[in-house]
Structure formats: structure tokens, C-alpha cells
Design brief:
The protein is mainly α. Helix content is 40%, strand content 8%. It has a two-stranded antiparallel ribbon with strand order 1-2. It starts with 7 loop residues before the first helix and ends with a helix. 1% of the residues are buried.
């Protein structure tokens, strides 16, 4: 469990720790302390999103978990990357 962070530095350390523990090799993004991004993109029930470099939603999946379609999300990522 990750504690509720009091500072942006604490949040950054937690993000670095999670990336290292998960062995992530891709860039990760971290929300600001006001959770502006989470509030803007949250979906209920959960959904898979792909956000382009322009900050616009390039792919919005169906309601999860039954609507999750990882291959479709992967295809959206590949299309953004020009593959």
C-alpha cells in the first residue's frame, strides 16, 4: 500500500519505486498534488485510456473490467507511434 503523499517529492519517490519494482522500461507520468489529471480522466467503472502527446484521448475503452480490450489499446498505442 502506498501512503497518501504530503509533498510532490514523496509522490515522485513512490513513482520511482513502483517503476523500479515493476521493471518498467517505458516513460511514466506523475499527477500533480491536486490530482488534476486523475479527476479529468477518471472513469467509473474503470476504463483503459491512451492519451496522445497532444494531451487528447486517442483511445477510450469500454467499461471495465469486462469491456477491457488490451489488444485494441495496444493497437491504438502502435498507431500513435506510427508502427
Amino acid at each position: 500500500m502506498v501512503a497518501n503523499h504530503k509533498t510532490i517529492e514523496e509522490r515522485e519517490e513512490a513513482a520511482k519505486h513502483c517503476a523500479a519494482e515493476l521493471g518498467l522500461k517505458i516513460p511514466i507520468l506523475m499527477d500533480s498534488m491536486d490530482d488534476k489529471t486523475e479527476k479529468a480522466y477518471q472513469g467509473w467503472p474503470d476504463r483503459l485510456y491512451v492519451v496522445g502527446k497532444d494531451g487528447k484521448i486517442a483511445y477510450a475503452g469500454e467499461k471495465g473490467p469486462r469491456g477491457f480490450d488490451p489488444p485494441q489499446a495496444r493497437e491504438a498505442l502502435h498507431n500513435l507511434a506510427g508502427r
